[in-house]
Amino acid sequence: MGQALIVDDSATERAILVNYLQEIGIDILIATSGEEALEKIANTHPDLILLDVVLPGRSGFEICRELKGSQITNKIPIILCSNKGTDMDKFWGKKQGADAYIPKPINQEELLQAVQSLI
How many domains in the chain? Predict the structure, then answer.
């Protein structure tokens, strides 16, 4: 069904996301920081990015804004996933270019609907 890059510094959250996406046949790449994510995106050009907001180094908001500002990566759908789940956080995520914003703990049904609508 495609390839997704999961960018999250929490092993538990990564495992949950991997499990959900593999159930619907998506191949998975993993990054634990924004810098590692940018490297992997440059080398693999995934079909979808699931991006945590709170990351070591640069925030998911910054990474999202950079990816959406580039001619090379601006068409890759980005789903922000975060413990920051207020309406203002969601608004700010959309302003950075995110295609969807899903608060943690991740609701499997909500995630899969977002993924299927974007791939």
Answer: 1
